[in-house]
Specification:
This protein is α+β, with helices and mostly antiparallel strands. The chain has eleven helices and 13 strands.
Length: about 325
Amino acid sequence: MSIEVTELDAATDREEWNRYVDRGKRTNPFYRTEALALQAEDTDTTLHLLAGFKGQEPIGLFPIFAYRKGPLTAAFSPAPYSWSIPLGPTMLNVDKLKQRKADRRIRRFLAGCLEWVDRELSPLYAKFEVAELEDVRPFTWNEYDVSPGHTYVVDLEGSAEELLERFSSDARNNVRNADDDAYVVEEGDGDDVNRIVEQVRARYESQDRAFQLSTSFARSLYEALPDGRLRPYVCRVDGAFVGGILVVESDTTRYRWQGGVKPDTDVSLPVNDLLDWTVMRDGLEAGLERYDLVGAGVPSINRYKAKFNPRLETHYTITTAAFGLDVLIDQYRKVQ
């Protein structure tokens, strides 16, 4: 039976799409229609929900964002400058298939999606950040450029004490020797979402680096997603906010999405160690499997993340472009 790729309607089919997202073992909350619609609105792009079916069985999802300016059309997943967790295509119901059948299903689904993109959008540029699909060979077979990237992942297994014992000695000591009466780490609220994003923005600006994530987008995401899918973890000293991490949560994984920057106040506490430890410990106790530290490509930051004894995982940036258009699209916001 062949694979049929069809576009679902982001308004009328949103519950159907979300049911498929919930079935996927490799999906994250940014695949949900609430998050996708907010990305499209925030980046002035048009959302297209591609779903693959074998008969009545859903076998794959691929959210696409189309950006148009004059005669130029580009395709993205996730939306450009949305600061989303990587999206791209994800497969459903392939884990139990034998390798030959899995290869054939992935190849046909991606071929159908890329044919749809070429036929309906005819983009002169495309960029897909892919983390939920290991087999990206069909992109190379279709003459896309595939570049590897990396992230760190901590496996949440064993007891809390066993998890802590796997940390480096300085991380263990920072957690164990912190004065419990001097701070509180807890899950906050919508106002704390704002505080975390603004703290990150201030850190970027102090380093003369661009930070396009809007506070309103993060707050809207917190309010739109189901409870528990975006968790603002905060550290307070004497009731005052000193640092935080926005944690995106799927059924299996916690993602360290934003935050965890150097506190902008002088405190004699290892704020980020305490935040990351609490996020991991709570995730372990809730039965989650992984803590994705979201990135392992910046040496100065890697030194911090590596002390939690993570393992390295690979994700991919997949692009295709007419000559010179990659530079133009990457700078598109400057000419809006």
